[in-house]
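User: Show me an example of a complex going from sequences to structure tokens.

Assistant: Sure. Here are the input components:
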Amino acid sequence: MRLENDQRRAQLLALARTAFSARAYDDVSIDDLARDAKISKGLLYHYFPTKRVLYVAGLSAIAAELVVAVTSIPADLAPIERARAGLDAYLEHITRHRAAFISLMRGGIGSDPEVAEVIEGVRRRMFDTFVVDSPFAPLLIGNPKFEISVRGWIGFVEFTTIDWCVNPRLSRAEIRDLLTEILFEVLRVVSPPVFRTQ
Amino acid sequence: MRLENDQRRAQLLALARTAFSARAYDDVSIDDLARDAKISKGLLYHYFPTKRVLYVAGLSAIAAELVVAVTSIPADLAPIERARAGLDAYLEHITRHRAAFISLMRGGIGSDPEVAEVIEGVRRRMFDTFVVDSPFAPLLIGNPKFEISVRGWIGFVEFTTIDWCVNPRLSRAEIRDLLTEILFEVLRVVSPPVFRTQ
DNA sequence: GTGGGCTATTGACTTCAGGTCAATACGGGA
DNA sequence: TCCCGTATTGACCTGAAGTCAATAGCCCAC
């Protein structure tokens, strides 16, 4: 069946997302995908020049959705509420797209620079959402200890979240509150004394 | 040149470790390795039945060395000193085997279960070293919030450490102390009030 | 020393998946 | 109805993983 460029592209992208979420990169063959789409392999290569490009396109779409979910929270919240709401959105989104999230974060192709860049982009956006946009950020940005700690906290979140996907021993609210609390403890540890209100 | 089984095996393992540390899994070909070892490809397959097995063998060796480095610290230290010493050994070892460490943690084959198991083994050993062997552990083990937090902290460490390898903005001692401090803050947050001495 | 057997070693072969390309089918506009 | 652009095909190429029957070198019994 002949399809318009955009429709065919969207169909292939959707198929790829499903396949790469369910199976590992190497376990998804282009022939399989073409067969699923009921087209020839040549046509698939007409739309995506390499398997890796197709994979990255799918991954980017997943990442973009995650970023939208996390960053579309009210801007006028207090820092701690902002973090809590962002984490809530993050966890909610992940709950609904478990397989996609895991394949995103586990990085099907460990060392591919483009894949790394996609994941890094998600982290940067999270960093911005949780910290840069907060009122005291201007005083913290540029402080290595601070920046390193916040990135470390993001590692904490990713780790915890992946564990949680596999084996949810705490409720979403509990995880959210735990991560929030730890973020602020971390900030307290690395902040200049002026911020240590407790 | 004809070699004894063990020697040939060791030679191939060493070559593989070097190659896989320097380049990505897919960028290392069996033909290359065989050529480097000045043997035929068939012989290589006589020693390691698949490329993946060879890769995992190299990775396991790297992981084992890291574990040895971290766990061979005096057993009679106070918990906080134990953690600090363990982290010091960890960072020292990583400094000396940067490429190997990064290839271990980035997981050249993201979704391979055996690779995941190797990395998971390292984490488990670190968990044990830093926490289980400490005096108050019996009261904390089994508490989900606690276990999740410590695993999260390990994520914090891995993240921070990889960043640090690429862009060392703090000294090793500073990173070590930061990670130690954060571990104890995390423990404080999730511990029953009885442990909150500060 | 020599013949026999064990094992390290070879190299040509197979397989399979990613990627290429010239040729074709289809549809809309003049 | 013809023409042209583009979606589509399928046969082909390539390179790397993995196989295997055959060989070469060494040690030991005689």
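The lines above are the inputs; the final block is the predicted structure for all four components together. Chain B has a mean pLDDT of 90.
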